[in-house]
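FIELD: query
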Amino acid sequence: MAGIEQVTPVIETKLKDLGLELFDVRFFNAGSRSILRITIDAPGGGVKISDCERVSSELSLLLDVEKFSPNRPYTLEISSPGIDRPLKTPRDYRRITGRPVILHLTNGINGKKTIQGEVVGCTEEILTIKLDESQQVDIELKDIYSGKEEIRFK
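FIELD: result
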């Protein structure tokens, strides 16, 4: 019997073989049922419904082989992170370099716990954003409670 920790690397490998990436995986209870929610991404973005269908089919078989949750029925859900995806990893922040972002911080900057700016760069531990034309700040990723790209429509 394999738990979520054991199957996550297997899921990542399968998605890589399919030309996709694992964005998030969660196994949780919703009322009387259990849900395995897998969020996929494509390099460069743009997950299609056909990608979700293909992944659902492939992972359903793979999870049966791995004996994931054999004594507990669950629903497998496959989705994309969507346009307003949360920013979680350095890779997520690097992907939106040059774009506006809204951050909620555990420790504020200049007394503010919510800040807006443009992503300048990101290392494995530090996000650099430009707050305005004259001010740029470095923020430790561990101090970011949540972050999202600020979507602007023309």
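FIELD: remark
The mean pLDDT is 90.
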